[in-house]
Amino acid sequence: MKLRPALFLLAFIGHAACDRSLAPPRGATSAPPATVAAATPTAASAGSTSSAATASASAASTVPAAPDTSFADLVNKLSEPDQHFFSDNYISNETSYLHASTSLAKHAQKGGAYIGVGPEQNFSYIAMVQPKVAFIVDIRRENMVLHLLYKALFQRATSRSHFLALLVGRPHDAASDPGATASIEDVIKHVEKSAADEKTFTAVHEDVEKVIANDFHMALDANDKKTLEVAHRAFFKGQLDLRFELKQRNGRLYPQLRELLAATDLAGGKTGFLASEEAFRFVQTMQKENRIVPVVGDFAGDRAMPGVAAVIRERGLTVSAFYVSNVEQYLFENNVWGKWAKNIAALPTDEKSLFIRAWLDQGKTHPREKKGHRTATILQKVADFNARQAKKPYATWWDVATDQLVD
């Protein structure tokens, strides 16, 4: 089947996707907040106890503040039409995702902008890079909805253990929470001490819907709500044994969620977003401050990527890191490499801006691939990419994945 160019974006599998008819992004954009005038006393009336002034101030104080719809407005403004992919990608399948930790700590510039794709491993990279703003760009609207689920759980969680319990629908025993110094193993052990039950899951999920509607002001239609429930229930059903799966299974056994959360970097350190209190709280703060923005978008598209570039530039930032997984493999397969290169050249970057890539071993082993893994996570400077692309455009995904790697 010949595929449309927009179908390659989700980066974890190494197969081609099926097309879906284009339609405007679902969910109405919220109206701009109304302006509430504040009564300011003049010099002549300073200190006055006028009953009229008192009544006016009292009336003004009863006017409810206009809701902050800036997060929802930005998501809807940047997002492109939904596209279908043959995997739900609730969790990553890249066992090597933390192998870039040491290099990121050494080379990544903090305080810039982060761009990523796909599910939860973005949180670990965000904690490492510590940007001021992050955008998760993915062709599937399902991924945007999944990140709204995560955002709501970060909003409600009081601890790492509580967050994970909310995700998998288990009761949380606050009295015995292992606390800020607990290892990820202790966090997981605490979560699993209480059995999952339908009543708890239902209560948590109903609260998630309320948070998304009332706190985030995201208007989800019936399809979105179904997507949200299906995604959350996948965690409830699979628990910490949940694995990445293709809709048409290939017999390969991908890592469990518990394995991903407890994964180590090349030095043996546990640097995932739930492995330390510092990492978790950094991501949680960004979520609460609406600084992690999920976007429905095509890496080679004309709306989402240029829009993200414009927002980053307007905020006076440069890209610190761009996690692209193995997206570029599909860009070559769908003959849209030139559009992708153009979008990258338009991003505000500098000499420290980095790509984070994942090579998936599909019969050709990457030189950086470690024993026991079938993925390799590698870094390249965006400036080196742009210079090489301008001089002699890349011809294959292998050329990209092995060129000018950062140690």
Q: What does this protein structure show overall?
A:
- It is a single chain.
- The protein has 407 residues and is of the alpha/beta class.
- 40% of the residues lie in helices and 9% in strands.
- The protein is built from 16 helices and 6 strands.
- It has helices at 51-61, 70-78, 101-107, 121-129, 141-156, 160-168, 184-191, 198-215, 222-238, 257-261, 277-288, 304-314, 327-333, 337-346, 382-391, 397-401; strands at residues 113-116, 133-138, 292-296, 319-325, 354-360, 375-381.
Layout of helices and strands:
Layout: H1 51-61, H2 70-78, H3 101-107, E1 113-116, H4 121-129, E2 133-138, H5 141-156, H6 160-168, H7 184-191, H8 198-215, H9 222-238, H10 257-261, H11 277-288, E3 292-296, H12 304-314, E4 319-325, H13 327-333, H14 337-346, E5 354-360, E6 375-381, H15 382-391, H16 397-401
Parallel strand pairs: 1-2, 1-4, 2-3, 4-5
Antiparallel strand pairs: 5-6
Radius of gyration: 23 Å
Q: What is the count of DSSP helices, taking H or I runs of 4+ residues?
A: 16
Number of strands: 6
Overall average pLDDT:
87
Spatial arrangement of strands, main beta sheet: 3-2-1-4-5-6
N- to C-terminal separation?
39 Å
Model regions low in confidence, pLDDT < 50 over at least 5 residues: 1-57
